Structures are given as C-alpha cells and as structure tokens.
C-alpha cells in the first residue's frame, strides 16, 4: 500500500516538505498545465506530427561506458587499443559485440547501433549536458544545468500516455554525474517537469515507492471518496502561496486522486505482483529489477522512463569493473527486448542505451589517479570523440549499424552523428515536434532541439 506521509514538522519521513510535494510530487507526476499541454499538442498537430502512443526507456550508463569494450570492438588494432575482450558474432551478420554480451548477441536483430556518435568533450558534466539536453555550456567548473532535459520537454508537451500514470519517471533516481536530478531535470520549465523518482531499490524485498501512499490515517477506502481526498488536501492548499499554483490545484486534485487511488498506477509500481521467473530473467539485482519496473511503467502509460546504471568511470582496473557490470547489463537489456516482443510492445517502446561519453581508445597503465601500486590494472580515460548508442523498438529497425569509427576507434570515419540526431530520432518515435519552442527565465524562446536531424536509416 502506497503512502504519502507527513510528520508533525510538515515534512515527509524522508525530509521532503509539504510545499515541495505539491510543487514537485504531484506536478512532477505528469501534471503540466493543461492549457500548456493542449497548446503544444495543437502545434504538433498543425505541423503534421503524427499522434502516437509510444514511450521511451533510457538506460543511462552514468560515468561513461567504453565503446571499445561493448559494441565497437577493434580486434585488429594493437593490443593497447583492442582491449581485454574479444568480439563475438550476433544473430545479425556483421554486427559483432563483446563476448561479455552473449544474451544480446541472440537478440541483436531487435536493436541497432549508432557507432559514430560524438560531441568531442571529455568533461563528465559537459558530456552529460550534451547527451541529456542537447546543448553544451556547462563544465566541471560550472555544473548547474542550463537547459531542460529532452525528456522533460517531451513530457511537458505530450503528458502521460495514460492519465492515471506519471508522465516522466526515473528508476531508482535521476542522477547525472552525481547531480540529482541534474541534467534529467526540467530546469527553466520548472520543478514540476522534473522526473518522479521511485528512490527505493527495486530489487529489495521491501521495495516501496516513496510518497505514493495515502496520508497517515487515511485508508484507500476513504480515498475512493472524492470528497475525502479533497478534504485531505485542504490544509496543504492553504500553505501554498498565491503565485498561481493555487489556481492550478483544481486540475491537480484529479491527478493526485488518480495517482494515489488508481489501480493502474498502484499495480504498475508493485513489483511483487510480477512473475518470479521473469524477474529472474531480468536479473535479481538493482539494474535488472529497475529495467523490469521501467517496462511495467511504460506498459501502464508512462511516456518516458530513465534507469540509472552508475559506476562506469573506469580509469583503472577496467577488467574488474567490466567483469561485474557487463553481465548485468547483458541480462537486463536482452530480457527487456524479449519481454517487449512477447507482450506486443516492440513497436510502442523505444529503448535507448548510452552514457555521457566513452573512454579513450588507447588504454592507460592503471595510473591517472589510481590507488598506490595500481600499475598493471589498465583502464581507459575520458573520451567524447567517438561513442556508441544502442537504439531499438518504437519503430526503430533492428539489426542495423549506423556509422563507423576509424581502425583505432578514435573518431567517426563514416556518417558522423551528434546528440541532436539521437534526440530528433527519439522525438520522431514519440510524435514530438522538435521545433517546439519553450521560454527560458529571461523570456527568450528556446527550441527543443537546435541541431541534427532524424537518423532516417533507422526507419
């Protein structure tokens, strides 16, 4: 049973204030201004954008996964480049991937690889901002985000696919290079367009989504009475200032009602109702169960779900890190594609896997800030000049390779692709007009995407 708990101090048990619940909790559950959503949808329709019922699952490998060790191996390169693992054939001729991905090798026909992605920065924050917002402008010396995430913009315009579900969710949390919600957030669109975070570990036997339970002392039966729900929010409403939020509360009341009492939402977040055999197939670890929860959410009507896989900053001891991480990724990704296919969702859900950048094609000797005596445990440093992005489902054709890097994996040698190309493609799947404009804090109009185009070879 889900709860929204307030203590005597007016805060949740996790320290979130009542006001923040109203501004981020309810509104963040896909509750953009109704007039804003209708206006944006109208513009999309006038532009000839096809109305769709599609969703996106973004698997975010925070820290930067090496293209040379995952999806773009170079077995003919010198040993210091080609790395530790060998490529294996997939069920798609010519699409070889790491031997650490045997399960994905069996379903490679369900996804495609963009091997010529680049933004040419080795700064974690700049790279993350490019990949998640489509723009640069930040750095390790100035980390605050300057633009909304592509997912915040999309869900502001499109809303949820089912009104009983949040439009934008992050599992278990939204984190870009340690910043929460970081570059996944709404920025100048407002905190109401930040993702709703489940926070708890989906692999925990006691997994429970925070802030989605009825208020203390209020039963589900009472919440089914519309008047009881409205009464329970009266005190909260009185605490809201008169800046305009109060005027939108009538519209938010129904959304809160649907989220707290709706059977659809409660079932979608309840992993305990899932078949144990399927849970094992995804992997009984945080990443596997997070991906399974993401599938449940998009199936129920969430438009955009991000899943956080952290810890990819392998400057040293690359083998230890990859030996641990790659099997979990392989299990979760392969299970997701197979599950979507079996449920008839392959054409409705786009899966995207990427990080903020890649790693240097040439391995180091284990130094670069490594622990004492770390020599002999090679790693790879930061690299944004060549990256790989996996995309599949939602109308994106599988079994295709877009672009290529040179023989050492250092830079695109064919069909260069930038973050905007990825974003245009995502918006094409969602039915989002990439020329939609938003207004920043200064009143200046900002386009959703300012570079690139749809990767047409994927359709």
What does this protein structure show overall?
The radius of gyration is 22 Å and the shape is globular. The protein has an 8-stranded mixed sheet with strand order 6-5-7-1-8-11-4-12, with helices on both faces. It contains 15 helices and 16 strands. Helix content is about 35%, strand content about 15%. The chain has a single domain (about 50-210, about 280-459), classed as Alkaline Phosphatase, subunit A (3-Layer(aba) Sandwich). The chain is of the alpha/beta class and about 450 residues long. It comes from Gimesia algae.
List keywords for this structure.
459 residues, Alkaline Phosphatase, subunit A, eight-stranded mixed β-sheet, disordered N terminus
Question: What is the topological layout?
Answer:
Layout: H1 18-26, H2 34-46, E1 55-62, H3 67-70, H4 79-82, E2 87-88, E3 97-98, H5 102-105, E4 112-117, H6 124-133, H7 150-158, E5 168-171, E6 196-197, H8 220-223, H9 226-239, H10 245-261, H11 263-269, H12 276-282, H13 286-300, E7 304-310, H14 318-342, E8 349-354, E9 358-359, E10 382-383, E11 387-392, E12 401-402, E13 404-405, E14 412-414, H15 419-430, E15 437-439, E16 445-447
Parallel strand pairs: 1-7, 1-8, 4-12, 5-6, 5-7
Antiparallel strand pairs: 2-3, 4-11, 8-11, 9-10, 13-14, 15-16
Summarize the model shown.
This protein is of the alpha/beta class. Helices cover 34% and strands 13% of the residues.
């Amino acid at each position: 049973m889900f709860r929204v708990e307030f203590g005597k101090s007016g805060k949740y048990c996790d320290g979130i204030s009542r006001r923040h619940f109203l501004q981020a909790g309810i509104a963040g559950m896909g509750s953009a201004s109704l007039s804003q959503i209708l206006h944006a949808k109208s513009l999309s329709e006038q532009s000839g954008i096809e109305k769709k019922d599609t969703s996106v699952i973004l698997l975010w490998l925070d820290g930067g996964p090496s293209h040379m060790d995952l999806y773009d191996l170079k077995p003919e390169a010198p040993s210091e480049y080609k790395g530790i693992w060998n490529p294996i054939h997939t069920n798609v001729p010519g699409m070889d991937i790491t031997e650490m991905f045997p399960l994905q090798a069996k379903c490679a026909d369900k996804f495609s690889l963009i091997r010529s992605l680049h933004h040419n920065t080795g700064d974690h924050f700049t790279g993350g901002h490019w990949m998640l917002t489509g723009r640069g402008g930040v750095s390790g010396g100035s980390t605050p985000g300057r633009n909304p995430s592509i997912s915040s913009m999309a869900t502001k315009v499109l809303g949820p696919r089912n009104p009983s579900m949040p439009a934008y969710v992050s599992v278990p949390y939204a984190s870009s290079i340690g910043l929460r919600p970081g570059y996944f957030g709404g920025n100048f669109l407002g905190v109401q367009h930040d993702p709703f975070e489940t926070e708890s570990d989906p692999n925990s036997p006691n997994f429970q989504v925070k802030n989605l339970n009825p208020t203390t002392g209020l039963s589900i039966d009472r919440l089914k009475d519309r008047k009881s729900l409205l009464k329970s929010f009266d005190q909260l409403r009185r605490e809201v200032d008169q800046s305009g939020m109060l005027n939108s509360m009538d519209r938010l009341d129904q959304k809160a009602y649907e989220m707290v009492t709706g059977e659809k939402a409660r079932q979608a977040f309840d992993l305990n109702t899932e078949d144990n055999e399927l849970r094992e197939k995804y992997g009984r670890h945080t990443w596997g169960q997070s991906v399974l929860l993401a599938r449940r959410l998009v199936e129920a009507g969430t438009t955009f779900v991000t899943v956080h896989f952290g810890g990819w900053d392998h400057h040293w001891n690359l083998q230890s890190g990859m030996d641990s991480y790659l099997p979990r990724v392989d299990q979760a990704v392969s299970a997701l594609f197979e599950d979507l296919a079996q449920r008839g969702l392959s054409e409705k859900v786009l899966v995207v896997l990427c990080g903020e950048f890649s790693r240097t094609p040439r391995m180091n000797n284990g130094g670069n800030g490594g622990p004492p005596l770390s020599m002999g445990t090679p790693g790879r440093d930061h690299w944004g000049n060549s990256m790989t992005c996996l995309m599949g489902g939602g109308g994106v054709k599988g079994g295709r390779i877009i672009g290529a890097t040179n023989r050492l994996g250092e830079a695109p040698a064919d069909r260069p692709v930038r973050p905007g190309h990825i974003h245009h493609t995502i918006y094409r799947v969602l039915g989002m007009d990439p020329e939609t404009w938003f207004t920043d804090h200064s009143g200046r109009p900002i386009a959703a995407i300012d570079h690139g185009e749809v990767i047409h070879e994927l359709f």
